[in-house]
C-alpha cells in the first residue's frame, strides 16, 4: 500500500504497513539520488548551497499547529526525565531507559563542546533546558543562558525556582529575532529541529559569531543525510518528505552532512563527527511506543489542543511522524540518514 494512502487516515494507523511503505519510499529516494553521476551529485549540492545563501535566515512557515507549543505535559509523557527531545544515545544500540539515553547524549555534547566549569554558555533553542540543566549540574560556576519559547521559558523558570538553580536564566526568543549585547565562551545549537527550520546558514553563523568570545566555540547538532540535501516542502517524488513538511517541518531543510562546511566566512570547523542514524531511529521508536502506551493520558491533552474531532487524527499523525523518522534513520543500518555534530571556532 502506498505511503500517502496509509497517511490519509492516521487515526486508523496500520503500523506495520506504514513501516513497510516508508522503507519503499526511502529506497526509491536513494535510488533516484545515487543514479546521478558523482560529479552531478556534487554539483546539485553546491547549487543547493548557493541557493540557501540567497534566502532569509528562515522562511515564514505556516504549519497547521506549532508542534513545540503543545502543552509541556505531553512531552513529559513521551520523553525522558530531562525532556530532551530528539536523538538520544543508545550505547551498543541496546534497549535502555530514555533517562539513561538522554544523559549519554548530553555527555557527548559536554565533551565535544569542550565545556568547562566557569564558562559562560549560550544554549540556543534550549527546549525545556535539557542541556542547560545538565551543564548547570556539572559546572556550578558557569552561567547558562537558555533561549526558548514562552512555554519552555515558563517551565525552565519554574524548575529553577523549585530546585534552587541560580546559574540558568531563560530568554523568550527565536534565533531570527534574538539580539544580545554580551558574548559567550560556548554556544550550543542542539535542539532536534532548530537547524532544520533554517535556510541561510551564512546569516546564522554571522549572527552567532557576534556573540562569541575571541576563543569561543559553537557546537551544533543536526539531523542530516550523508550526501544530499533538500527542502522539506518539495516533493520531488518523495511523499514522505512532503507529508513531514506539511505537518511538522513546514519550510524546513534536510541538511547534507557536509552542508554547513560551505558556510565558513565567520566561523571555521575544528571538529566534525557522524553518529550512526540508528540512535535517532531508536529514539523515535521509543517516542512512538510512549504514544501507544500512554494514549489515555495523551488524548485529553489533544482534545484541548486540537478539539475532540481532530484529537485522534493528530494522535495518529504524531505517532506516524515518529515511525517515519525511526525508519528513515535506521535505514541501511543507520548509514544513510545520520546525526551530525560540528564544532566551530570564531575566525
From TrEMBL:
Q: Which Pfam family, just one, is annotated for this protein?
A: CMAS
The record ties this protein, via InterPro entries, to: SAM-dependent_MTases_sf
Q: Which GO terms describe its molecular function?
A: methyltransferase activity
Query: Per the UniProt entry, what are the Gene Ontology biological process annotations, in alphabetical order?
Result: methylation
Q: Which domain of life is it from?
A: Eukaryota
Classification via Gene3D superfamilies: Vaccinia Virus protein VP39
CDD domains xref list: AdoMet_MTases (cd02440)
The entry's family comment says: Belongs to the CFA/CMAS family.
Q: Know the name of this protein?
A: Uncharacterized protein
Lineage from the top down?
Answer: Eukaryota, Viridiplantae, Streptophyta, Embryophyta, Tracheophyta
Amino acid at each position: 500500500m502506498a505511503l500517502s494512502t496509509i497517511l490519509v487516515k492516521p487515526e486508523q494507523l496500520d503500523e506495520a504497513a506504514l513501516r513497510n511503505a516508508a522503507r519503499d519510499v526511502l529506497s526509491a529516494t536513494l535510488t533516484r539520488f545515487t543514479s546521478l553521476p558523482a560529479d552531478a551529485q556534487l554539483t546539485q549540492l553546491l547549487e543547493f548551497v548557493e541557493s540557501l545563501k540567497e534566502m532569509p535566515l528562515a522562511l515564514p512557515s505556516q504549519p497547521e499547529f506549532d508542534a513545540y507549543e503543545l502543552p509541556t505535559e505531553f512531552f513529559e509523557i513521551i520523553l525522558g526525565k530531562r525532556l530532551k527531545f530528539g536523538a538520544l544515545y543508545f550505547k551498543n544500540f541496546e534497549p535502555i531507559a530514555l533517562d539513561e539515553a538522554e544523559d549519554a547524549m548530553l555527555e557527548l555534547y559536554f565533551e565535544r563542546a569542550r565545556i568547562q566549569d566557569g564558562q559562560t554558555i549560550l544554549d540556543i533553542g534550549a527546549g525545556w533546558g535539557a542541556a542547560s540543566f545538565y551543564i548547570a549540574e556539572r559546572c556550578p560556576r558557569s552561567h547558562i543562558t537558555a533561549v526558548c519559547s514562552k512555554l519552555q521559558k515558563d517551565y525552565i523558570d519554574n524548575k529553577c525556582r523549585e530546585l534552587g538553580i541560580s546559574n540558568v536564566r531563560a530568554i523568550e526568543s527565536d534565533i531570527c529575532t534574538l539580539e544580545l549585547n554580551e558574548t559567550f565562551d560556548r554556544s550550543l545549537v542542539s535542539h532536534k529541529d532548530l537547524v532544520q527550520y533554517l535556510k541561510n546558514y551564512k546569516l546564522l553563523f554571522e549572527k552567532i559569531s557576534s556573540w562569541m568570545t575571541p576563543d569561543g566555540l559553537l557546537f551544533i547538532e543536526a539531523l542530516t543525510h550523508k550526501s544530499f540535501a533538500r527542502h522539506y516542502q518539495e516533493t520531488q517524488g518523495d511523499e514522505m518528505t512532503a507529508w513531514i513538511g506539511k505537518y511538522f517541518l513546514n519550510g524546513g531543510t534536510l541538511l547534507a552532512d557536509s552542508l554547513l562546511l560551505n558556510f565558513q566566512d565567520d566561523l571555521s570547523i575544528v571538529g566534525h563527527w557522524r553518529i550512526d542514524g540508528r540512535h535517532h531511529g531508536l529514539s523515535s521508536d521509543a517516542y512512538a511506543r510512549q504514544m501507544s502506551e500512554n494514549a489515555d493520558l495523551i488524548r485529553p491533552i489533544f482534545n484541548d489542543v486540537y478539539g475532540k474531532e481532530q484529537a485522534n487524527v493528530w494522535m495518529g499523525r504524531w505517532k506516524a511522524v515518529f515511525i517515519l523518522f525511526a525508519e528513515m534513520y535506521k535505514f541501511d543500518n543507520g548509514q544513510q540518514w545520520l546525526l551530525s555534530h560540528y564544532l566551530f571556532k570564531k575566525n
